[in-house]
Amino acid sequence: MNSIKENVHNFFKRNFFILLVFIFISMVTGVLFLHSKFVIGTTDLYFHWQRILDLKSAISHGDFYPSLALDKINQTGSAVMSMYPKANLYPIVLLSYFFNDFTKLIPIIFVLRNLLSFLISYYSCYSYNKNRKVSFLFSISYTLTPLLLFYGVQGYDIGVSSSMIFMPLILFGFLGLLKNNDWIELTIGMSCIILCHILNSVIIVCFLSVFMIFNVKKFMDKSKIKSLCKAVFNTVMITSVFFIPFLILNLNNKISLPENTWLLNGTDVQTLFFSSLNNIVSTASVSVTGVLGLVVSILLYKRLNLYSKQLLLISIIFILICTNIFPWSILEHTFIKDALQFPTRLYVIPQLLLNLLFAENIFKVFDKKVNSVIVLTVSIFIILLMHLGSQKQMINANRYNDPLNKPFWWHNNFVIKSNSDFYNLANSSAQIQDYYPRATLNSSYVLNNHLATYDNNKKISFVLKGNGKYNFKSNIHVKRLTIPFIYYNGMTYNVRLDGKSINYGHNNNSLMTIDNITSGNHVLIIIVKKTGLEIFSYFLFLIGILILITGIFKKYFKTI
């Protein structure tokens, strides 16, 4: 125990000043947003906050890992809570208990997100190269890029912005595997990113596959293969809590994916470099520091180590794939369009790699001519100024957008200026059809308007009471009532009408049906029960966490 205390004490003693700087810069990144007193509104803001509020409601009713949406998303029983990772929502739910003002909560989330990204990026880099200056500069340049600013604020894509926090952990975890057969950091990084965002998980695996091909000879070593298998096996166990319910739903139902009406086009090369060099908040950008990392690495190519040369080449490959140089049109009618949606999503890889190359090589440019501390200080100051400049441009571009003074209905270019605006966002009935059974898409109207149907489309209005509870009134006896609630094969429900458990079924549109409804007022409650496989996934998750904790103690506290 004394060894643990000593290790922790020494770590904070050595890095205390860096921690203070990270805290200070994180707070600075939130000042302009707090001062603006509004939150930029997008469709993703609505989507993610429906999920956040549904999770918050589920937790308040004792379900800490809900499978279906029973409170928000029109209380339709949508599978969006299982089909989309939700681990990244829990910290936001927790913060929402302490901060009631929405216009303050969002900037605070942004500040804490940046702080976490600084810490993980720094620790990941330093644990591999033992160079404080490079690690410090990398953490700042990577976290304060326009790409992360877009996903974190402008587009409000919680999945992408949170998953990008863990990409440095995966990169350096894999480098640690190549160098020392370490598997801990890679396991933590991959587990976290999978529990945040599926697509970025696939993209990072594609990157690792290419990186692995470059170093295939190293995997002739059995110990390296063993370490890789440990990482894969442990990651699968930890993330089973997500992918087992995910597979249950996909294998038992024909699930509709988010609609994609855009053409699959790469970025114009001129647009890419214009956006990057001007630090424009956009998905098609690798930032000023990324461009500098590319240029400097090419100029100093002979002085790069083997892995840096490989990362430079992989960066160039990913950039070329993202642009219109790559023939994206041939993939227009393939599954890749539905899965990827936008080729710009791939920029997360060159953004990561080029900012690392920038941090590694900017000191070589000045070498002994300028003190490295001066180079570091000036670089960080300029990066922070550019970041704040990008924030200012984004705030000015949205400042005069209309507040959301009526219920949200699938539109952008609005702002949230008060809790009443947020109420219009949170309590909108705008339908989220992602991950419906395909057959249910034909029933969007009755779901959106909370209508039960019987006898050739006669209708009864349902009143949503939250958490799977509904009130309705029937003027006659109804033999079979189709209710505005989605039925998923593979899920187990407990349906209670007026306090009594009843049988249920479903129609051809995958809507739940109940029989023999008497005339009068009724209370219907639908409870989603945990399946045996879901409970098994929790068990696998706990075992995976225990294995990981054991590995951490063996690596960092060997003297105990």
Helix content: 55-70%
Specify the biggest β-sheet.
6 strands, antiparallel
Integer-rounded radius of gyration: 25 Å
State the strand order across the main sheet.
Answer: 4-5-6-12-8-9
Structure classification? alpha+beta
Keywords: Membrane, Transmembrane, Transmembrane helix
Protein name: Membrane protein 6-pyruvoyl-tetrahydropterin synthase-related domain-containing protein
Transmembrane segments: 16-34, 136-153, 160-177, 183-216, 228-248, 280-299, 311-330, 342-358, 370-389, 535-553
Organism: Apilactobacillus nanyangensis
Give a short summary of the structure.
The chain has helices at 2-36, 43-60, 80-83, 90-96, 102-129, 132-143, 146-154, 158-163, 167-180, 184-194, 198-214, 222-252, 269-277, 287-299, 306-322, 335-340, 348-366, 372-398, 419-426, 444-448, 532-556, and strands at residues 39-41, 402-403, 414-416, 451-454, 458-466, 469-474, 478-486, 492-497, 500-502, 505-506, 511-517, 520-529. It has 560 residues and is of the alpha+beta class. The longest helix has 35 residues, at 2-36.
Protein architecture, described:
By secondary structure, the chain is an alpha+beta fold. Helices cover 57% and strands 11% of the residues. It has helices spanning 2-36, 43-60, 80-83, 90-96, 102-129, 132-143, 146-154, 158-163, 167-180, 184-194, 198-214, 222-252, 269-277, 287-299, 306-322, 335-340, 348-366, 372-398, 419-426, 444-448, 532-556; strands spanning 39-41, 402-403, 414-416, 451-454, 458-466, 469-474, 478-486, 492-497, 500-502, 505-506, 511-517, 520-529. It has a 6-stranded antiparallel β-sheet with strand order 4-5-6-12-8-9. Strands 1-3-2 form a 3-stranded mixed β-sheet. Helix 6 runs parallel beside helix 18. The radius of gyration is 25 Å and the shape is globular. It starts with a helix and ends with a helix. 44% of the residues are buried. The mean pLDDT is 93.
